[in-house]
Structure formats: structure tokens, C-alpha cells
Amino acid sequence: MATLLDILREQLGLTGTKKGCGAGDCGACTVIMDKKAILSCLTPAMQVTGREITTVEGLSRNGELHPLQEAFIECGAVQCGFCTPGMLLSAKALLDQNPSPTQEEVRMAISGNLCRCTGYKKIIDAIMLASKRMKDEGGQGKK
Amino acid sequence: MSVVGKRVKRVDVLEKVTGKALFADDLRFEDMLYAKVLRSPLPHARIRRVDTSLAEELRGVRAVLTARDIPGESTIGILGDPFRDQPVLADEKVRFVGDPIAIVAADSPKIAEEASKLIQVEYEELKPVFDPVEAMREDAPRVHEGGNIAGHRKIRRGDVEEGFAQADVIIEGTYKTPFQEHAHLEPEAGVARVDEKGNVTVWACTQFPSNVREEIARCLGLSLNKVRVIQTVTGGGFGAKLDISVHCHIALLALKTGRPVKLVYTRPESIMTSTKRHPFIIKYKTGATREGKLLVVEIEIIGDTGAYASYGPAVLTRAAVHATGPYNVPNVKIDAYTVYTNNPICGAMRGFGVPQIAIAHETQMDNLAEKLGMDPIEIRLKNAFDLGSRTATGQLLAHSVGIKKTLQEAQKIAKEWRRDLLRKEEPTKRRGVGVGVMWYGIGNTGRPNPSGAFVELLDDGGVVVLSGCAEIGQGSDTILAQIAAEELGTDVENVKVVTADTGVTPWCRATSASGQTYISGNAVRLAAINARQTLFQQVAADFGVERGELYLDKGVIWVKDSGQKNLITEAIKKCRSLGILTLGSGWFNPDTTPLDPETGTGNPYATYSFATHLAEVEVDVETGETRVLKLAAYNDVGKAINPIGVEAQVEGGLSMGLGCALMEELIVEKGVIKTPTLAQYLIPTSLDMPEDMSVNIIEESEPSGPFGAKGVGEPASIPTAPAILNAIYDAVGARITTLPATSEKVLEAIKGKSSHQ
Fold first, then answer.
1. Regarding beta strands B227-231 and B200-204, do their DSSP bridges make them parallel or antiparallel, or are they unpaired?
2. How confident is the model at residue B755 (pLDDT cuts 50, 70, 90)?
């Protein structure tokens, strides 16, 4: 049975979403389905009909990086980059639901995304920075 | 300096945050076939017969190959002869669960897998050996014809008998460390294609493209220049991607079928076949004066290298060289054995034998301090290397010895932590602080390991750097760009780094032994200087000054102490008009000597990095569970070319060290891995890492390093586990000597201690 990950990578050529284990253990395949971070390697393709899926390819708009992408670059949160797409989407799902997370909430939100390079510190810093910036920008927008 | 030492954004980061970075599994070719490997289910057996006929008949199967289809040489091994002992495809014998026997290429991954299951192999089971101590006996089953001891490294210095006779206090300990898995996030993957002229191109993840080219060429019976290895963006390695994985298999299948062939490992296949961290059994005896001065150590190390040598003898040699710790010890006897068994293959894993031995020397040191009633940091300071110290191999340390500085910095913060400790304890929880130190030789041990580089200064002042250096996430592309930019007076944005494509980049050592900044960095620096010299020659002639009077800054060439200047672009243009090309080449090999086989005497490394790590833990006395509350790292890196990259390496190292101390154990029973997934082999998650984690960079400049730099990749991780283990002891008096320190083991040790009292 084809999974959402298979469809994304093999049929649509959206290879930004990574396959690290194919068993739901590593989080590299995380995408957003209807506002929730899900593991695309465990999601049957059939369940996706009519749902909205966001992958890493959909994070930047018109060539402009998402604040999370900007923050990951600035904080040095990327090393080998294999966990990065999944990490970004877990972070986006969190910030979409909870724009002002505590550090603990950030840790919890990415606890299913394994990273072997960074020790998570700069990733957490980046998510906190993006959260702050998005709030600041949102606040300015309301004025 | 305007670029080196600055916090620079990675040059490869944009494609990594947008999903555009192409890892090997992301590549697609028209007409591409998919490969699958049939592997041995048995740890030790003779192959009587392999029948591939049913597999060949399956619709969609394009090739099924066994050992006899290999056109060239059929064995591989990263250390070269005499350790080229691993068959590309096993024909006579299988030696571990996972040994490859046949490979299939088919129209889809599913067909390839089905076909692999149709291959029939008849085995004659042989008596296996799994315990390295047992394997060392004369009458043990032989894994290889030549016997099971693949290496015996000896280090002798002074007189150990005399040393122990003089010692006021003797500490003995036995330490056991488990198999560990790199758990690089990207499983091994690659694609091979053969063109109409018979040139083979392989796109794959690897830490060592130059070696992959050589092994493929040997295996296919081709000249080196007919094989091109292009390293794809590599999703971590930590040593696992040094050895050959998919490379020869896909090249063989592409050659046979004439079509592109892709192979991607599943996670269990990756865990089953990639080399592991060697389990060590260490017997360690230390003698010291009552003032706490080390007099003597006697150490035996047995390392289980599994079915094939891989880097085994080199890992055990490095462990032996570093076994004293960064301490002055006048009398030394070390014996390190590399032993074959029918277990999974062990090879390089971040630290290369030093993490295991550091656990032993740092536990010994704390036990000694306790016995003498001394402070753990004081006793380390008392014995630590200085400028002018001699190591166990007799090497004089003449420069860049930062160990005391790292200890002194750590001492300040350790005092603060201790002051706050007791106030925060809960009734069933105890807190403790521990320290761990390490030293680490940069580059291969007493073996040549050079890198080359080319640099071209383009007409518009832009720079192209060609280097064979494999970026695996550690940030080397950025470091090389910074080094070239610094030497050529420009910005990182103005430098294009092309790396790890054997079709265009020169020979390069492996990304290992924390050596790329020092060795490939030096090569790039020399190439940049070479290009600059050509340019300066011309400019100096134009100004009528000496070449040495010129310097470059932000695209402008200045004559020292005069207002005279010229734009670099103008100077290059002038060169071009005269037919002069501003090209440079360079190469660098660390200054080492081989170790004497009987005494181990020699200068195995040109320079060493040093570090001290501190850990504060909280242990639940009812469950034995340990939480790491604080980590602080003090790493002497010579010079941090990119401080944000150093921090990133160390933070990652801290997490790997934490995993090593508390949770990581690949369980192998009768040669079978019982933890073949990331749900069973646990590595630290975001919830395991402490919020309070500090990285403190110490810079004891290394004169032979690029801008004073040494290395950090492995030193980032080595002292963490000893610090955590010592902190557990400090908290609850539980001394864990068989790793990892799981809750069960800590609880048992706590109970054992109270029953003794």
C-alpha cells in the first residue's frame, strides 16, 4: 500500500520530505496535514484525499523564506540537513497552533524528530527566535 | 582577520532549509533500475551452492550477480593490504549476519526484493565465535585463515614494575563498553551509471570519495580515471560512511545492465551492515604517589572488530596511543588487541576508540582522587600535559597544549555548580557534578593522509576552490570557503567551493579523525597563497616593489606603508592580457612518524586537540533514572575558523556523549542484532538534552594549522560520557563500569552499595 511519503517523493517528485526509517521512528518524513504534523511514512495515501498537505517545498512563498527557515539559517540549526525538513514542519505546526510556545513546549513538539548532528540546542533557539519574530511582525501588522 | 573567526552562515544552508538539497535517494534517472542485496542470515557458514535461476526468471529482473560475476578484485577493506579482507560478494564463506551474497537489479524496488528472496543458497554451518576473549584462544573457531587476532599494538615506556614498586597507591578497574550505532539520519544510498565509453559515475553518500573511486575501480577492473565518484549531500556519517556500502554493488549492476542503478538501504539494513563502535574490554591499573602524581599505568584493551577488519587495527592503535589520557606518565605498558569474531563489523565511529578508553582513564582518575582525598580537577591539573611534556609514545608536545587551560576554565564553573547543588535536591533525588577530559590526535595515526586543493582567481575577482573534502554536515565547505576568502582578501559569498567530485577535485583524505580543517584547510590555504603569489608577482613588478610588500584587503591590493593600491580585478585583467593565469594548487600532509611495532615509539600526530567537559546530573534513588541537568564544554580547538560551526559540532558531540553514557547499546545475541530499528536503538531526543548547555572555545594556536586551527569533530564528544559517569558517582556513589549507565544498572549499583555498608 502506497504511503503519503511514497506519493510525495516518487510520484510528485517532492523529494524535500525525507525517508529516514520508513517506520515512524525518526520524524524525517514529517509533513503537515490539515494543520497537524504527521508522519508521512505511516500515512496511507488513500487517507489524504481532500486534505491539505504542506511539505518543506511549500514553506517559502514567492521566493521569500518562512521565518522559521530564516531562523534556522541564522541560528546555525542545520548541519547535515536530513532532519531539517521534518524539523521545520513540526515547528511550523507548533507555531501555527501556539504562536508563543515555552522552551518546554518546543522541546515536546520536536521530540519525535531525531537529529544526530546538533544536540537540538540551536534548533530550539531557532524556533524560539522565529516565534518571537512572527509575533513582532504580527503585532506590527495590527497597528 | 576579516573572515576567519567570524560567525559565518553555512554555504550549503539555503538548499537544506528549502528541501532542494539533493541527497542520493533524491536522484532520478530515466530507465533507472533498483537494486537489492541478498545477505547471509547466518553468522558463520560455508556457501555450498548459490542458485539464482528462479530470481533471473522473474519478470522485471535485469541482472542477478554473485561473486563470480565480479570482473576485477573481489575484496575490499579501507585500511588496504593486509586488511583487505571483506568480500564484495561472499563466495566461499559468510562471516556475519548481513554478509552480501548476491545482488539484483530490477525495474522496481519491489521486484528486486522479491527476486532476492528467490535466490537459493545452500549453507554448511560452521561453529561461530562471538566472544572476543574466547576468539583469542588458539582452539577458537577461525573467522579468517590467518587467525583471529588482527592486530596487537604495543606501547612501552619506562619500567612499569619499577613504577608499581614506587607507587603509594594503586587503582585497578575493568571497563566494558557496548557496540554502538552511528544512527546517521540518512540511510546509505547511491546511484551508478555507465556511459557508452564505459566510464562509470557513482553518485552516493560517503565520507571518503577518493577511496570509493579506488575500490570501485579495483572491483570493476577499470583504471581510476574511468571511475567518477560524486559525493551527494550526505546526511551524517560519524564514521559509518567511510567504508564501502552501496558503491561497488551499484557499479557492478550498472556495468552489467548498461542502465542507471539505484540502491537505498532500509534502516535495519543500514544498522546491520554499517560498521559499529568497537566494544572494548579494558583492564586498567594505575599507580601514583600519595601526592597524586601518576607514576605508572598498565593497560590491556581488547576490541571486537567483528567479521572484518574495517578500521579495527587503526581504532585499537589510536585507543592505545591515547590510553594514558592527557597526563604525564613516566612508566607505561599498553597492549591493544583487535580481534575478529562473527559479530557485526566494527570500524570508525566518532572518537575512533578514544571515547571507550577515556571512560576508563577518567574513572581511574576519579577513583584515585577519591582514594587520596583530592579534588578531581586538582588531581587532573597536577598531571596534565604542559608544553614540553612527552606522551606515552615519546612524542614531545612543543606547541598548542591547551589541556590545563580547559581544566582551569572548567574549575571556575564547577565551583559554582557545586555551591548550588545541595539546595536544589528533592527527597528521592540526588545531584552530582562530574568532570571528564580528553586529548585527540588530529589526522590518521602515524600514516600519511594528505589532501590536495586547486584555487582559481576569476576575472571578476571571484574565487573557485576545488577540494576533495567530503562535507557530511560538519561544515567543512564553509570552513574551506572562509580560508580561501581570508587568504584572497574577499568574502565567503565571493567564493564557490566545489568539493568531493573525483572527476574534478584532487585526491583527498577521508572526512575522519577530526582532520579536515587542519589538513584540507591547509591544502586550500596553500593553493590560495599559490594563486595570490602569481598575481602579486605581476603587481609587484608594476609597482616596482617586492612581492612581500603587498597585501590584499577587500578586493584591493595595497603596498604596505604607502598609499599605492590596485583593484584585484584590474590586476587579474592585467595578468590575463599578458597570458598569465592566476591558478594555485596546494597539498598538505601532517608531519608524523610511524609507531615502532615493539615499543610504539613515534610521533603519530602533528597536533592534538584537548577538552574538558562538566556534567551535572540528578539521579532518582528509587528508580536509578539519571537526568543530565547541565553540560559545559571547554574545547581547545587551536582557532575557531567559524565559531558557530564549532559550537554546533560540540553541542552535537555533547548529545552523542550523553547517549553513549546513558542509553546507547546495540544488543547483539549470537551475531544477530536485536535492536535493528531506531525504536529499539535509542539515541537522545530533544527531551533528553539539558537546557543548560554551554560551549566554551579555548584557542591555543597551532603553528602548523590554518590560522592556528586544529580540529573539533570528535573532541566534541569524547569527554562527555566520562563526565556524566563521574557525576552519577558523585551523586549516589554508583560506579558504572559496564556501559551504558541505564536506570537498572544505576539502581543495582545503588543497592549494591547500601548492602555493602
1. parallel
2. low
Q: What is the three-class DSSP state of B755? A: helix
Quickly state the pLDDT bin for B754 (edges 50, 70, 90). low
A38 domain-assigned: yes
Note whether B689 contacts A15, CB cutoff 8 Å. Answer: no
Which A residues 39-68 touch B at CB under 8 Å?
Answer: 55-57, 59-60, 65
Q: What is the mean pLDDT of chain B?
A: 97
Q: Does a structural domain hold residue A32?
A: yes
- How far apart CA B296 and CA B391 sit, in angstroms, is 13
Contacts with B572 (C-beta within 8 Å, 6 or more apart), sequence order: B457, B458, B459, B461, B535, B582
Radius of gyration from C-alpha coordinates of chain B: 27
Chain-chain contact of A23 with B26 (C-beta, under 8 angstroms): no
Q: What is the DSSP letter of B517?
A: I
| DSSP type of residue B577 | H
- pLDDT of B425 over the 90 cut: no
Q: Which residues pair with B46 in a beta bridge?
A: B93, B124
pLDDT digits (tens, 9 = 90+) for B394-404: 999 999 999 99
Residue of A nearest to B25 (CA): A15
Q: Which residues does chain A have within 8 Å of residue B187's beta carbon, measured at their own beta carbons?
A: 19-21
Contact A20 B267 (CB under 8 A): yes
Q: Which residues of A touch B13 (CB under 8 A)?
A: 72-73, 78, 81
ipTM over the 0.85 cut-off: yes
Q: Give me the CATH number covering residue A49.
A: 1.10.150.120
For A32-81, how does the pLDDT look when each residue is reduced to its tens digit (9 = 90+)? 999 999 999 999 999 999 999 999 999 998 889 999 999 999 999 999 99
pLDDT of residue B290: 98
Contacts of B440 (CB under 8 A, 6+ apart): B322, B351, B354, B514, B608, B609, B610, B611, B711, B714, B715, B718
The answer to whether B13 contacts A22, with C-beta atoms less than 8 Å apart, is no
Q: How many domains does chain A have?
A: 1
At A141 the pLDDT is 43
Contact B263, B244 (CB under 8 A): no
How many Cα atoms sit within 13 Å of B184 on the Cβ side? 32
* pLDDT score, position A140: 54
pTM, rounded to two decimals? 0.97
The mean pLDDT of chain A is 95
For residue B756, what pLDDT is reported? 52
Q: Is residue A71 part of a domain?
A: yes
Domain hosting A13: range is: 4-136
Q: Closest-CA residue in chain A for B27?
A: A15
Domains, chain B, with CATH or none: 15-126+186-235+241-273 (3.90.1170.50), 276-385+412-444+595-756 (3.30.365.10), 450-588 (3.30.365.10)
| Domain annotation covers residue A141 | no
Check pLDDT > 60 for residue B757. Answer: no
Residue A98 makes CB contacts below 8 A (sequence gap 6+) with: A105
**Taking CB atoms and an 8 Å limit, are B185 and A116 in contact across chains?**
yes
Per-window interface: A 15-44 vs B, CB < 8 A: 15-23, 25-26, 28
Q: How far, in Å, are B108, B215, B603, B680 from residue B80 at the CA level?
A: 35, 10, 22, 34
Q: How many angstroms away from the CA of A34 is the closest CA of chain B?
A: 20
**Optimal mutation site among A14, A41, A121, interface B, most CBs of chain B within 10 A:** A121
